[in-house]
Amino acid sequence: MNWSRGVCACRPGMINTLYLPELREMLASDNVVELREFCTALHPARTAEFMEGLEAEESWRVLQYADEDSRVQIFIYLTPERQVEICESQDRDAIARLISKLASDDRVDLMQRLSHEIQGDLLSRIPAAERREIQRLSQYPEGTAGAMMSINVVRLSESLTVREALDELSRQAEQFETIYYLYVVDAEQHLRGVVSTRQLVSAMRHPNTPMSELMETKMVTVEAMEDQEVVANRVARLDLLAIPVVDHEHHMLGIITHDDVIDVVQREASEDVQRIGAVEPLRDSYLGTHWLIMSWKRGIWLCILFFCGLLTAVALQGYGSQLAKWSWLIPFLPLIISSGGNSGSQSSTLVITALTRGHITRKDWLRVAYRELFVGGLLGLFLGTLGLIVAQLFGNSPGPLEAMVVPITLTLVVTAGTLIGSMLPLLFHRLGFDPALMSNPFVAGISDVLGIMIYMNIALLIL
Amino acid sequence: MNWSRGVCACRPGMINTLYLPELREMLASDNVVELREFCTALHPARTAEFMEGLEAEESWRVLQYADEDSRVQIFIYLTPERQVEICESQDRDAIARLISKLASDDRVDLMQRLSHEIQGDLLSRIPAAERREIQRLSQYPEGTAGAMMSINVVRLSESLTVREALDELSRQAEQFETIYYLYVVDAEQHLRGVVSTRQLVSAMRHPNTPMSELMETKMVTVEAMEDQEVVANRVARLDLLAIPVVDHEHHMLGIITHDDVIDVVQREASEDVQRIGAVEPLRDSYLGTHWLIMSWKRGIWLCILFFCGLLTAVALQGYGSQLAKWSWLIPFLPLIISSGGNSGSQSSTLVITALTRGHITRKDWLRVAYRELFVGGLLGLFLGTLGLIVAQLFGNSPGPLEAMVVPITLTLVVTAGTLIGSMLPLLFHRLGFDPALMSNPFVAGISDVLGIMIYMNIALLIL
Q1: B295/A462 Cα distance (integer angstroms)
Q2: Residue A317: in which H helix or E strand, if any?
Q3: Residue B384 pLDDT > 50, yes or no?
Q4: Which chain A residue is nearest to residue B320, measuring alpha carbons?
């Protein structure tokens, strides 16, 4: 059977149902030859994709036809939700064997997704060395460099020569997370330098050169407790394949590789987008999230926003008599409120992305404030002019003086929205919160109420 | 002087002003020793950071103290805006020499940022081989795999042995973008397989093994015209260091490396966030964007949203007599409109992030619609209940029947907003637009007007 048919049609993360009937038939007839072929003929990520439509139990049965290496490789490309399902439902001893073969960082990620009871059960079945490693890595809080790192890293002594290093590498290449950076450590495991495999290969013509001569000491490192976003920005900025993780005494603890950094960048980006869109970030994929969790993650923010909206209702009721007198002001109400909210969410979006990318820090707040005040004022004047034209066309205001209420309000509301939208994320950042958290809802709430107050007071002043 | 002071305090992308006075003094006194030291003592990315506060002309003068290799490396870490400034203002022959030393993908990126006139002038000064390469790579439209790829890639013939491959590698390691994947091609440059340096190093004990035996033929490739987002998702999903780019006849064209993928992921994420926040994506950093460009990129969307808001004003004027009669409905107006808009932007945000990450495709639209209808209905009922309580507390509705207007409207508006918010991005995607483009503004516009219509018609029906 030609497994490569349908490979091109398949996008990562999508469920590919093309071979499900064939796979099920093979399982039913225990077709060893075809199932072995399925487990080895394709890139393990592709094999995993084809299996995504199967039930957990079926997937596990398919994996039994793979040799141990392929099984581990295919397993790690299954979706996190499926991995958990399999671990929680299948034979514990076999699962423990599988887990002890995973890379150290993948192992900890997986274990932390399991229930406490199953974690404990599996831990007791995992060999002592791996168990200690899992426990050590689990100490680092989620979101820190320590929690991301792998400890399967090549450590060499300074006195090793190029030839010895290459020999060492050729013996052990298979068991390390990456062999593309070799870390040179002293007897106390202090990180002294790094040699890239590129340098090592280039130096093959001088096989007796010691590592100490070859190694680069201008290294960039991260500390274990640093935030994963800092790690991601540093690796991205320096185009690194991996970054070493050290403690505050510069002991070598492990490394974080480029693939984990891409994952962090993607996940943090989605989380930021979702927060800005007033959704509590999803842990799993959109379709993989239970409707109850989905409703909860949206509901809490809708409620908060509802109560913000309620403030506008209170404010408007307070101005009830005024509105009854000048009823021609009412149609413009949503327009004015949304103009303030929109300019505010533009500003907060820009400030949040700039903070995430590391393009500004909260120390830049005064520069940001000046800039936003200026751009906001400009945009406000422009929208105000549009409002003037519109007020003329609508022609529902009683006189020329009255026609100025809407344009003046628009100018002020847009400027105020811009300023609020830019300063709130910086304030949240200062207070130690995620700047994307709560910003847009708060911006909307504050600028809505402010918009109504400005509108009504300008009207009072002019009329 | 100890250049490493202040390194830790510096975040990527921020302007580090710590050494500016010292640097300027060294330039003034032509302090060769210290300036050479500055150009070589640190990681080139750090050196570039310290130089960011300098003028283009000063940066260029500092770079003259670096040897050619360091100059290229420091230059590539300067911000894109600064690179362009230097290229446009400094000696053309020296710039052409620098450009011809850059990696092929960086070279094309830089050239495409320059004005046509300067591009032409520089091209004429660049050696013929590099010129042809730039021209060939420039053919691929921005945002495609072809435009991202580098052509400095190791190509080996199938008959080469491990020993020969290692020799070849050690001779040429310095000049390739990555040496961690070696691509095996036939005489017509068709891609036949890939050998990782890890495999090669492991196989050192069997030096006469031919590449054809060692190579992996289960390869994942991209075609040159595929979108950069597809490339990024594939590399991220498969944890690759690099992915080969081929044409439709499977000729090897080049590779895309992990660092370029991280850049794409970061850039696309910021762009999505900015589009969702109704800002036309910025090309440069927040502080690096001219106020005029900033005002323009925000102004166009504010205007579009303004005209959407105008529709609400028109609608409200249409219902003017009704509103005058039932003035107690007015205070709830912004609350109802914003509830619909908020639930809509939640849905569009979720659908956009799921599309970007490849978790859904537009073929899933029916599943998404069912899901959103269900979750939206649930959220709507919940907000409706809140609305019922609020209407009782406010106590401004004339009777028990009238008190039902706000809750019923809220339920319907939230459900409608959810459905619109989820379907519009899929529709845009279907029409070939970026799903993040225009979605939130359109969602807001449509759900605002719809909200008013639902509100008024429910009121008519009940009262």
Answers
A1: 30
A2: helix A291-318
A3: yes
A4: A331
Q: Which of B265, B329, B405 to mutate to test the interface with A (most CBs of A within 10 A)?
A: B265
Among A19-28, A326-335, A414-423, top mean pLDDT goes to A414-423
| DSSP structure class, residue A10 | P
- For an interface test with A, give the residue of B259, B373, B378 to mutate (most A CBs within 10 A): B259
Q: Which residue has the tokens 């040179």?
A: A184
Q: Residue A311 pLDDT more than 80?
A: yes
For residue B46, what pLDDT is reported? 83
3-state secondary structure chain B: CCCCCCCCCCCCCCCCCCCHHHHHHHHHCCCHHHHHHHHHHCCHHHHHHHHCCCCHHHHHHHHCCCCHHHHHHHHHHCCHHHHHHHHHHCCHHHHHHHHHHCCHHHHHHHHHHCCHHHHHHHHHHCCHHHHHHHHHHHCCCCCEHHHHCECCEEEEECCCEHHHHHHHHHHHHHHCCEEEEEEEECCCCEEEEEEEHHHHHHHHHCCCCEHHHHCECCCCCEECCCEHHHHHHHHHHHCCCEEEEECCCCEEEEEEEHHHHHHHHHHHHHHHHHHHCCCCCCCCCCCCCCHHHHHHHHHHHHHHHHHHHHHHHHHHHHCHHHHHHCHHHHHHHHHHHHHHHHHHHHHHHHHHHHHHCCCCCHHHHHHHHHHHHHHHHHHHHHHHHHHHHHHHHHCCCCCCCHHHHHHHHHHHHHHHHHHHHHHHHHHHHHCCCCCCCCHHHHHHHHHHHHHHHHHHHHHHHHC
* φ/ψ (deg, to 5) at B253: -105, -40
pLDDT at A269 over 70: yes
Question: What residue of A is the nearest CA neighbor of B422?
Answer: A286
Least confidently predicted of A77-86, B192-201, B283-292, B412-421: B283-292
Q: Residue B185 forms beta bridges with which residues?
A: B157, B191
Amino acid B353: pLDDT? 84
Tell me how close the Cα of B30 comes to any Cα of chain A, in angstroms: 26
CA A256, CA A190: separation in Å to the nearest integer? 17
Residues of chain B above pLDDT 90, percent: 21
Query: In 3-state terms, what secondary structure has residue A188?
Result: coil
Instruction: Say which of A166, A273, A386 has its CB closest to residue B272.
Output: A273
φ and ψ at residue A149, rounded to 5 degrees: -75, 160
Tell me if B340 sits within 8 A of B416, measured CB to CB. yes
pLDDT at A11: 41
Give pLDDT, residue B192.
92
> In the numeric block, which tokens belong to residue B20?
């500016």
A233 neighbors A358 (Cβ within 8 angstroms): yes
Sheet holding A222-223, edge to edge: A222-223, A242-246, A252-257
Q: How many residues comprise chain A?
A: 463
Backbone conformation region of residue B129, classed left if phi is above 0, alpha if psi is from -120 to 50, else beta: alpha
More confident residue, A336 or A285: A336
3 state DSSP class of A222: strand
Other beta carbons within 10 Å of B293: 13
Closest in A205, A219, A259 to B170, CB measured: A205
- Closest CB from B13, B198, B342 relative to A302: B342
What pLDDT score does A441 carry? 67
Average pLDDT rounded to a whole number, residues B340-360 = 86
pLDDT at B183: 92
Closest-CA residue of B relative to A223 is B8
- Distance CA(B463)–CA(B453), nearest Å, equals 15
Q: Give me the amino acid identity at B169.
A: L
Nearest to B277 among A199, A314, A346 (CB): A346
Which of B199, B202, B257, B306 to mutate: most A Cβ within 10 Å?
B306
Distance CA B443, CA B422 (A): 9
